[in-house]
Amino acid sequence: MLDWFLSIFHAAVSTGRDVLPIIVILLGFQFIVIRKKIPNFKKIIIGFVYVLLGLTLFLVGLEQALFPLGETMATQLSDPAFLNQGGNLETLTWVDYYWVYIFAAAIGFSTTVAEPSLIAVAIKAEEISGGKISAWGLRAAVAIGVAIGVSLGAYRIVSGTPLPIYIMIGYIIVIIQTFFAAKTIIPLAYDSGGVTTSTVTVPVVAALGLGLASTVPGRSPLLDGFGLIAFASVFPIMSVLAYALLAEWFSKRVKKPASDNSSSGSEA
Question: Tell me, what DSSP letter sits at residue 37?
Fold first, then answer.
């Protein structure tokens, strides 16, 4: 019990130290540059208290639950005994780790759907677009991209292939998609790569990569354990652009028969 209180205290001190520069900058601009009193000052103070409490508890939760759970799952799924190889490391190939790829895709999708920053961006996108962009459709498209990216990143760790090859090819595909996508969706697609790598997704994905690299023979946690977050950033951009291109293609397919029917009716 004492360890919990100590961990919460240390997390609170660390959070306060991290948030302090933000408070100083905001107050400095308000009183030195703008030179006006802060409206709703009491509400803002209460809000900052909520932020400190929330971040403190979240950091404690990361250390106590998410990081250990992610590493434990990766270790168990990549254990040779679980892979039905009788504990023989030499006979394992990348195909034998299929449960790792499935788990990586599932955890990537589920954490992204629950990502608060993505939910906020999706809701705003739906409001500003007047419903043309579906909040749930955007979240699903981003989550599918993260699922594919994290699963492919897990394969990279297992196979030991170089990370830069995947990232360069991914961005080349993004550039090609950008030329064909509608201008209204491009900024949102690029932002989608950033909002996914936030509070919920990053800890679990990072722990998964480190746990997997620690268990797979011949892999280094320092060299191979990191990089999954890069996959989780690139592939959502690709999936959102692909979602926009498919939606545009389907809308054209629907409009074309309607226009053909109207033209044939006018001729008659």
Answer: P
Region of residue 111 (left: phi > 0; alpha: psi -120 to 50; beta: else):
alpha
Instruction: Give φ, ψ of 91 to 5 degrees.
Output: -90, -5
Residue 174 vs residues 84, 86, 178, 182, 193: alpha-carbon distances, Å: 39, 43, 6, 13, 11
User: pTM for this one?
Assistant: 0.80
C-alpha torsion 106→112→113→117, nearest 10 = 170
In contact, 226 and 209? CB cutoff 8 Å: yes
- Cα 78 from Cα 60, distance rounded (Å): 27
- Alpha-carbon gap, residue 200 to 212, rounded angstroms: 19
The model's pLDDT over 137-149, given as tens digits with 9 standing for 90+, comes to 899 999 999 999 9
CA 122 vs. chain centroid, Å, equals 14
